[in-house]
Amino acid sequence: MVNGAVLATCKPRHRHQKFPSFLREIDKAVPEALDVHCIVDNYSAHKHPKVKAWLAARPRWRMHFIPACSSWLNQVERFFALIAGKAIRRGSFGSVRQLIKRLDQFVSHY
Length: 110
Fold this sequence. Notes:
By secondary structure, the chain is mainly alpha-helical. The chain has one domain (19-109). Helix content is 46%, strand content 9%. It has a two-stranded parallel sheet. Strand 1, helix 2 (49-56) and strand 2 form a beta-alpha-beta unit. The longest helix is centred in the last third of the chain and has 18 residues, at 71-88. The chain is globular, with a radius of gyration of 15 Å.
């Protein structure tokens, strides 16, 4: 939120098995001197014991669990609306791979 940078990864499913890999990507992208405040909804994948163990080993991480209708999550929804309007709508994609490529291009140029 500070500088508008977006880290994005397309995953086939939203499950606890994939969430730690996303957290690792964030961990690598954020300078070690900074704390990481992760704002998430109350989805069970965010509270899985494996996720909790990963976070426990990283004291710079702060998880903030908020309602799904929160204004913080509205910021994410707003970005999704930008993606829909500028990258997906009126597009023709012959495969999921093409769609992901288009999404990656949009995020890179954003």
